[in-house]
Amino acid sequence: MKMDHSAAPLYEALCLYEDCKRISLHVPGHKDGRVFDETALERFSGILKIDATESKGIDDLHHPTDFIKEAQQLAADAFGADHTFFLVGGSTIGNIAVALSLCAPGDKILVQRNMHKSVFHGLTLAGAQPVFIAPGVESATKAAKVSDFGYIEKALKENQNVKGLWITNPNYYGMSQDISVLAEMCHRKHVPLIVDEAHGAHFGQANPVPPSALSKGADIVVQSTHKMLTAMTMASMLHVKGHLVSQKRLAQVLGMLQSTSPSYPLLASLDLARRYLVTKGRSFLQDTAERLEKKRLDLTPKLKTLTIWGGSEEVDYRDPLKWIISCRSQAATGYQLLDLFYQLGCTAEISDPQNIVFLFSINEQEKDMDQVVNAIMELDHNLNKQQLVEPQKLTHTMLFAEEGALLQPPISLGEAFQMPRKKVALEDAGGALCGEMILPYPPGIPLLIPGEEITSAHIQTIRQLKEMGAYFQSPSDVTLKSILILDQTI
Ligand SMILES: Cc1ncc(COP(=O)(O)O)c(C=O)c1O
Asked: Does any ligand 1 atom lie closer than 6 A to the CB of residue 230?
C-alpha cells in the first residue's frame, strides 16, 4: 500500500497538543515554557511549547499504538525496513540495544574491530565474547573499512554458533562496500548481519549516493538520522528486516534503555526528517551530490598542495557529501589542517593524522559551496611550498592488526570491566592487558579496549598521535604518560 509521506503524524499531534492549551498538571516542570529562565525563554519557547512527554493523549514510545506507531511505519516505508524503532539517545543506544538483544553472557559474535565505542560498551554490558576481525585500510587515506569478504567468510567458517556479524558501513569518511555478498554469506548460516550505518542515513535515497544496507540484505541497521539527514541531535533510528531478528526482544531491550520521558521534539524531528527527505529531500540530495561532484572535479586540478580524495579501487562506493582533504606532500597533519581551516571560518567534521573530512548536507546552497571552495583555494595557496611537519613524523604505525586477523582478547570486555586495575607508565605497559579504553575522538574507534594486550606498536601509536595533537576522550591520564592495566595479581 502506498503511504502518504506528506503527513507527519507525530509532529501534527504535538501541534494539536500546543493548540489545545490545556492546563498542564503533569511533567515537564517548565509547564510548556511558563516557568523558565527569562533570559533564554525567547530562544527556547517554540520548542518548550511542544516539549511534551508521555501523558494522556500523547501515545507512548514504549508501547506505541497511535501517532508514534504511524510515524515509525512511515519511516520503515521510507527506509525499506519491516519495522523501525525511533531512538532518542543516538545510534549509541541503538548499538547497545543490539548487543543486549542478540547476546547472552558468553555468547560469541563476530565484530569488525573498527567499531564505534558504543558497540564495545554494548558488548561489555551483554557479557558477550566477541571475536574481532581486523579491518582493511584504504591505502591513500589510511581509513579503516570493512575487511575483505574472504577474511569474513573464513571467520564465519571457523566460528560456529555466532549470534551475528556486525560491521560499520560506511565508515566515518563515507567509504562503503557492497555488502550483498556478506548478507548472503550470513543468511546461508542463519546469522543476522548487523550494520552500523550511523553515517549513512541518506544512503539509497537518491542516485548518486551509495545503496543502503537494508537494500543489500542487512537484518538490523542503526542510523544516526541527525548526522547526515535533518533530525535534531541524538534523534536516530533502528531498522529491522527479515525473520532472523526478534523485533519483540529489541522492543523489550529498548524499553529498558530509553528514557521513560523521551523527548517528543526529538521524536517529532525524526518524523519531520522522514517527511522532508521523501517529499523534497531526495531530489535536493541528488542535485546537491551532482553539484558537489562537479565542484570537486573542477577544483582538483587547480590544487597544488591539498588533495580531495576521489575514490579508489579498494572501495566500492564513495559518499559524495564527504570531502576527505589531505596534503599531497604530507606538509601538514590533519589536525593542523583542521586548525588552519577553522581560522578560515570552516569547521571540519573530523581530523586524523593525515586527513580532515568536510561534511555537506543533503541540500547545500551554491554560495555555501563556493565559500568552502574559496577557503580550500586560499589554504592551498598559503600552504604552497610550506612544510609544517617533518614528513617522518607522519610515518604512523598501524592502528589495527593485519587485515583479516581474528582477535579474541584473553579477557573479555565484561570480565575486564569487573577486574581491579592499576596505573603504570605507558612505556612499561607492553605485554600487559589494557584496563581502559584508549579512544582517539573522533572517530571514536578505540585503539585499545579493556582486556586487549598492549603491544609496543600501541605504545608508539599513542605517543605519535598525542604528539600530533590528537584528542583522546577521557583517558585516566590526560597526558597519556600512564595507562590503566588489569591487575591480575589480585
Ligand atoms: C560509526 C558510529 N556509530 C555510532 C555512533 C554513535 O552515534 P550517535 O552520536 O548518534 O550516538 C557514531 C558516532 O560518531 C559513529 O561514528
From this structure: no
